[in-house]
Design brief:
3 helices; 88 residues
Length: 88
């Protein structure tokens, strides 16, 4: 019950703050709001694709990226460089 009212009051407070803004501040607030909406949408999309990512990685979850499911190959290349100078 508390969450329901809390969310409602937060939304009302946000709307009051947004209506009190002028010009450039209003534009910035709107851009910030749009960005938050976009991020929420993408986070939801990311969560929905979790199982598909796991299947593509052979059972490993990309959410749990640690060194246990990766292999590092280090190759050392030695190159001999010679330099000849012409002396006059």
């Amino acid at each position: 019950m508390k969450d329901r009212y809390w969310r409602r009051f937060e939304a009302e407070d946000l709307e009051i703050r947004r209506s009190n803004l002028q010009g450039r501040d209003r534009e910035r607030a709107e851009l910030k709001y749009q960005w938050k909406q976009y991020r929420q949408m993408k986070e939801k999309e990311f969560a929905e694709q979790k199982e598909m990512r796991r299947q593509l990685r052979g059972g490993y979850s990309s959410d749990e990226e640690d060194e246990s499911n990766t292999e590092t190959i280090e190759e050392i290349v030695e190159e001999e460089i010679s330099r000849e100078e012409e002396v006059c």
